[in-house]
Amino acid sequence: MNLSSEVEIDRPAPEVFAVVSDFSRNPEWQNGVVSASWTSEPPIRMGSTYDQVARFLGKDVVTKFVVTDYQPDRSISIKSVESSFPINVTRRVEPLSDHRCRVIANIEGDPSGFYRIFGPLLQWMAQRQVRGDYKRLKDMLEQ
User: Which domains are delineated in the chain?
Assistant: First the structure.
């Protein structure tokens, strides 16, 4: 399963990156994320870890993540190391001007068990949710 989303936000790129790279803030703008917390000491860097609990299709998805790539103020990539729904996420922030930027998210997942039976419907549902999440991010940051 491959998903993507792109949104332009009327805020400076460093400010936006501070939010999208701090995964503990996911519950503020991602539908279904119940909790997220860093399990390693700051600052965020390659090798940092965090845990997240999300609710999807009526089931809790508990995931442990590790940061696999980190470019300050530009991009962050994470991958699940324990989960019923293995996933890799990359978030990039590109400045368009001093006060506007573009956020690009790419998500790759490999649903297993219960989730695998939903096939193409799962892809459609997840893509719809991701687009909604990044719209909520835009709305939250532009307020």
Answer: 2-142 (3.30.530.20)
